[in-house]
Structure formats: structure tokens, C-alpha cells
């Protein structure tokens, strides 16, 4: 199944790009168009490493492919630098939504950290309002183009700073006005969810949902903390839950696995895993299993019944799209249309929406795949 230059692929005569999709793990500052970085950077006198959009895209891909989450995160210094004004934030958010719609996404959740966008004098309220304005513009543009998409904000706190309670309060204040959930991101190893227990206690008291980055740069203790201290309803990445699985034997096409208590809890409770295959390779999250997509435990988790979802994490850094991620998985693991639909249904079921809205989303996915 050849994948074209845009990451699309033909699957049983269908373009994957044309299938309805749900995106749960997609960072705003990780999805800025290279051309936009150059234009916005020029306007504020920012030193951008490349003056051509294609060359800048290559630069991001090269710098991100380090095998280290810490090094990977350094590339965000450039994208966040052009997201410090109302105009910059609104434009980036609008284009973000437009790019999702062009990729066949019908529902997306965009995560970003307001505290990282205050360098030019904007307040927390002002940056959230600017991003929401851009989201609204992107949704309107998609509607005019004949495409329906809805995008909600996941207001994110940085786990290595001490503003998480303030950010949690900000997220709840924007409930009903665009914010659908909360997240913590940034350096995972050494900065456990327990450091932010006050924020998570507040969110729980307000019945506001949280997803937590865990099981990417750190292992089972990080996942355990996300669930216990963070009350996470989803796991951001969560790929290292596979460390709690022991393959005891393999016969022909049958693999026999022993579950640890944590893995069984995540599987049995159907806690969605926000897996990001290309990003997981770039950051070294799957190093203990190998260095190629074939080594990714995605298929093992899927076959064992975990609620796996497919995500891009950072489109610019990984030079990818949701279509491309699905195409790569289909090519690597011989997935069929039914498999790709299952991933979208898992994502829809895990979306931070009211149950009626999730049911409507599930119906739209089923209808789209049937066509």
C-alpha cells in the first residue's frame, strides 16, 4: 500500500484522508505551519533558522528526530516565540483548525499551555480568548468550504512550573466557552502528577475532565500517578503501559500475555491511550522494544483490547498528519478499514464531550466509514 507525498494511502479503493477522524492529542504549538513561522518571525524580528518553508520543515524534522523527549521539546522555543501576540495566536489557531479539517478530522481537541504565551504582555485570559477566536474562525472557514468540524481546547499546565492550580482555575472558567479539558505537559521524568495534586483536586471538585501526559518519557510509576493523583480519564501517550505486560509464550499466530495489575486496570476500564506512533519513535518512548514502527507495541495493545487511539502529537515536528499516521500503521500492521474505524470509535468514545455528543460523533464516523 504505497503512501503518497502527502501521507495519504489507498485502502480498499478509499483515500484515508477522506475518512472521518477524531484527534485527541495534538499540540497547538506543535502544529504551526513553517510558512507562518517565517512570516510571523519576520514581523517581530525573530531569527528563524531557515527562510524557506520547506527547508524549515526539514529543520524541524531533523531536530526532532533525536530519540530524546528533552531535545525534542527544545524545538518548541521557535514555535512559541511567534505565538506571543493576539494576532499570532489567533492566526495559528485558525490555520490549525483549517489543517485539521483538510485532513478529514470532524472533532479535535487542541492542547496548549497559556502560561507559555505571556512574554509580550498578554494575560492568561487574553491568550485563551485569542486562541478561541482563531478556533471559531477556523470552524467558520471550514463550514463555508462545506466541511463540519468542532475543536475544543485542552488547557494545559507545564509540569515543571508551579502554576497548575491557577491554570486549572482558568480552564474551568472557560468551560462552556471553548475549554473541554485539562492536561499537564512538559518534562515528564522527575515531575510527577503528584506535584500538581492541588490542581487535580480542584478539577475533581468541579467535575472537569483531565488527560495527563504519562508513559512517554517515564514508565509505570508515571502512569500510576496520572491515574491516582491526576484522576486522568485518558493517558497522554501511555505507550509504556506495555512495560506491565509480559509475553509468556508465542505459538504460531497466538501470543500469550500476562497482565500486571496496572495494565489490567487500564485495559478493563477502557482508559484511552493517546498513542502517537511517529512521535513515540522520535522521542525514544519505545526504545526498549526497538527503533522502527514495526517494534511499536501499538498492535500488541490493540490486539489485547486496550482502547488505543491514533494521534499526531506535533504535526510540524513529526512532519505528519492523522492521515499519514493511520496510513503508516495500516501499512506496517496490515490493518483494514474496520481497524481504522475502531481507532476512530475509541477516540470518539474518549472525547471530552457529553454522552449525547459522543453518540452523535460515533454515528458520523460509522456513516462515513460505511460510505
Span from first to last CA?
A: 21 Å
Order of the strands making up the biggest sheet: 3-4-5-6
CATH domain topology: TIM Barrel
The SS-based structural class is: alpha/beta
Largest sheet: 4 strands, parallel
Fraction of helical residues: 40-55%
Task: Count up the helices.
Answer: 16
- Specify the CATH architecture: Alpha-Beta Barrel
**Which residues sit in consecutive blocks of at least 5 with pLDDT less than 50?**
none
Series of secondary-structure elements, N-terminal to C-terminal: EEEHHHHHEHEHEHEHEEEHEHHEHHHH
Classified by CATH, the class is: Alpha Beta
Provide the domain count: 1
Q: If you compute it from the alpha carbons, what radius of gyration comes out, rounded to the nearest whole angstrom?
A: 19 Å
Strand content: 15-25%
Mean pLDDT, all residues: 94
User: What's the shape?
Assistant: globular
What does this molecule look like?
- It is an enzyme of class 3 (hydrolase).
- Pfam families: A_deaminase.
- Its EC number is 3.5.4.4.
- Belongs to the metallo-dependent hydrolases superfamily. Adenosine and AMP deaminases family.
- It contains 16 helices and 12 strands.
- By secondary structure, it is α/β, with parallel strands linked by helices.
- The strands form 4 sheets. It has a 4-stranded parallel β-sheet with strand order 3-4-5-6, with helices on both faces.
- Helix 15 (337-350) packs antiparallel against helix 16 (355-370).
- The radius of gyration is 19 Å and the shape is globular.
- 49% of the residues are buried.
Amino acid at each position: 500500500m504505497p503512501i503518497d507525498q502527502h501521507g495519504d494511502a489507498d485502502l480498499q479503493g478509499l483515500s484515508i484522508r477522506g475518512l472521518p477522524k477524531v484527534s485527541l492529542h495534538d499540540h497547538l504549538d506543535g502544529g504551526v505551519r513553517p510558512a507562518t513561522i517565517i512570516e510571523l518571525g519576520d514581523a517581530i524580528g525573530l531569527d528563524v533558522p531557515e527562510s524557506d518553508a520547506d527547508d524549515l520543515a526539514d529543520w524541524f524534522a531533523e531536530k526532532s528526530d533525536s530519540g530524546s523527549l528533552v531535545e525534542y521539546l527544545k524545538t518548541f522555543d521557535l514555535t512559541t516565540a511567534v505565538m506571543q501576540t493576539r494576532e499570532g495566536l489567533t492566526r495559528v489557531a485558525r490555520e490549525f483548525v483549517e489543517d485539521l479539517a483538510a485532513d478529514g478530522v470532524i472533532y479535535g481537541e487542541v492542547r496548549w499551555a497559556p502560561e507559555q504565551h505571556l512574554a509580550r504582555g498578554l494575560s492568561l485570559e487574553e491568550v485563551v480568548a485569542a486562541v478561541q477566536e482563531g478556533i471559531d474562525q477556523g470552524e467558520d472557514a471550514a463550514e463555508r468550504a462545506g466541511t463540519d468540524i468542532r475543536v475544543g481546547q485542552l488547557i494545559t499546565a507545564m509540569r515543571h512550573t508551579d502554576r497548575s492550580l491557577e491554570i486549572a482555575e482558568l480552564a474551568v472558567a472557560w468551560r462552556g466557552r471553548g475549554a473541554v479539558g485539562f492536561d499537564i505537559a512538559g518534562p515528564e521524568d522527575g515531575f510527577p502528577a503528584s506535584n500538581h495534586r492541588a490542581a487535580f483536586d480542584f478539577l475533581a471538585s468541579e467535575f472537569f475532565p483531565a488527560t495527563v501526559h504519562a508513559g512517554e518519557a517515564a514508565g509505570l510509576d508515571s502512569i500510576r500517578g496520572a491515574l491516582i493523583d491526576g484522576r486522568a480519564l485518558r493517558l497522554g501517550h501511555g505507550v509504556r503501559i506495555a512495560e506491565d505486560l509480559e509475553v509468556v509464550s508465542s505459538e504460531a499466530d497466538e501470543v500469550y500475555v500476562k497482565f500486571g495489575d496496572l495494565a489490567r486496570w487500564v485495559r478493563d476500564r477502557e482508559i484511552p491511550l493517546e498513542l502517537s506512533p511517529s512521535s513515540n519513535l522520535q522521542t525514544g518512548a519505545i526504545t526498549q522494544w526497538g527503533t522502527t514502527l514495526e517494534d511499536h507495541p501499538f498492535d500488541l495493545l490493540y490486539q489485547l483490547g486496550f482502547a488505543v487511539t491514533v494521534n499526531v502529537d506535533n504535526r510540524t515536528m513529526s512532519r505528519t498528519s492523522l492521515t499519514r499516521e493511520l496510513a503508516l500503521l495500516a501499512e506496517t500492521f496490515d490493518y483494514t478499514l474496520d481497524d481504522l474505524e475502531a481507532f476512530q470509535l475509541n477516540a470518539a468514545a474518549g472525547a471530552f464531550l457529553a454522552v449525547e455528543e459522543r453518540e452523535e460523533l460515533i454515528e458520523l464516523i460509522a456513516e462515513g466509514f460505511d460510505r
